[in-house]
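Forwarding the complex inputs:
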Amino acid sequence: MGRTIIDKLWDDHTVADLGDGASLLYIDRVFLHERTGSVALKGLEAAGRHVRNPEQVFCTMDHIVDTTPGRTDDTRMPGGREFITSTRASARAAGINLFDLGDDRQGIVHVVSPEQGIALPGVTLVCPDSHTCTLGGLGALAWGIGSTEGEHALATKTLAVRKPRLMRIRFEGKLAPRVYAKDLILHLINRFGASGGTGYAIEFAGSVIRSLPVEARLTLCNMAVEFGAWTGIIAPDELTFEYVRGRPFAPTPAQWDQAVAYWRTLPSDHDATFDKEHEVDCSGLAPQVTWGTSPQQGGSIDGQVPDPASENDANRRQSAERALQYMGLEPGTVLNGVPIGAAFIGSCTNSRISDLREAASVLRGRHVAVGVKAICVPGSTQVKKAAEAEGLDQVFRDAGFEWRESGCSMCFYAGGESFGLEQRVVTSTNRNFENRQGPRTRSHLASPATVAASAVAGSLADVRKLATV
Amino acid sequence: MEKFTTLTAIAAPLLRINIDTDAIIPSREMKRVSKTGLAEGLFAGWRYKTPGSREENPDFILNQAPYRQARILLAGINFGCGSSREHAVWALHEWGILAVVAPSFGSIFQGNCVRNGIVPVVLDNAIVESLARQVESDPAKRLLTVDLVECVVGAPDGSRHTFAIPRADREMLLEGLDSIAVTLKRDAEILAFREQDKTRRPWIYLPTAA
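Prediction (whole assembly, two chains):
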């Protein structure tokens, strides 16, 4: 019987069968950041254990660091400095690869990891960070873990994992202009719910996926966790190989042919079977935006805020009522036109160079509306440099956006910067949870192009309908 | 890690769906590189009247007697979704929660529970709602039992509800095992795998750290 890509990677990394559907899996790469990695390294030290193969372990500073120009170890987050200095000391003591402040490889972990060729097709990669599933976009088997599991991976090079059920989702049709991977995943979560993928590893496939650029595949897989999935993955293809070639930690020219030959064996066999399959027709898909406090509470930009009373399921109804109260929205309100106070472009979901280019293409020759606070935070120092080389920073600045140093920034509130009480933000990030971006801040998730168009309009806007400049 | 066998305790119903780890412990409450000192930040956004204050919101269930003594939480689907932060589990445990009963969990959260002595019990939504109704009528007296030896939840009305939990998770909780020590018993297998793999996938094996 044929095997799926997930079966193949599982088999190729199995050190031992532990019974009851669990395996001891070999872990090729561990990535850490100062938020949850520091405590894992300290835990290991306290137990008198060592990092096995430190050359295959990486650490970056992204969650706590300030993103304002001229930043230092000091942060506006209470206690933030300790996260940075502790991580640095532990990383140096352990001898792992550290992308510190001032290192031009620094950036958001899931932006840096593909950029540096650390995440590769076919590797197992773990990180104490839920968005590690991002790297499935390259054909890596990558998933988020806790800090204690992080200690286990560091000390043993393995994790004991129960094999999830397998799902395939085929995205078919053709995406309309100004509709992106972000819209695909928001639509999927809206249709099947934030726990629609719970218990599954999901292969994303279909004609839409085959034509998606690699960075868009990373965006799609990034929010697999918002769908409840253990992880998401996309079979590597020629686009992937070209993306990976020549990156600092990628296979050397001498290793290249052997690596590619292996990668070509990974896609799911034609007769492979999945526990569940869905097909999503993308032809009529509009730009998506969320209206609630779960990623599942969203819809088309030209749609309306639904009436909770029309929800049959009592739990979903209560959740929607609570969300509308928090968000300050009335049922029946058309999303297109809801006034906003802020716009944010950044995060491991949508801060890569292609994201900034799409947003800049909307902003060129335009300016954000009066009273809108607009911020762009490139996903990595490399992305920032590339954007500046193309003049994108000037486009953002001319349009009235702040242009920052790289980091996770205002994707979440850690006691430092926030958008303010009941401020309404359109954001290219991944979580619209209550208080996520600040106390009582109201977050609307959308693609970078929709964020840019909304910033210009001063309200949630349909990027397809922008008047020509 | 402390062993868990069976627990009979007050259960607090918090049946909202999709309760995320940001809600369980907001990022702003993770102030130190530490696994402790987190109980005060548990559900801070709901538990206190204003962000940053410590003035209790009397409407929040864990601020109400007798739920202050709750050791079991009843929750809606997808409890613990979102961020991987293990601080959510550390905060729950430090506050006193030793078992969470829900129809489904965020997968990283579920794994984190098992590694910190909290039993994640999966039961059908209808059962969880029934348990909530039963305990609410007299929370101090109508206790819930989570029996990990038998894998059964005992309800105040005498009904018993069997739950499934992966064998390894159950053993880890029952025995309070150190999972790293367990794995290192297989060290010879791990090293043998690596030696073979070096030939098969040489590009995985990087020179020294840069």
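The mean pLDDT of chain B is 96.
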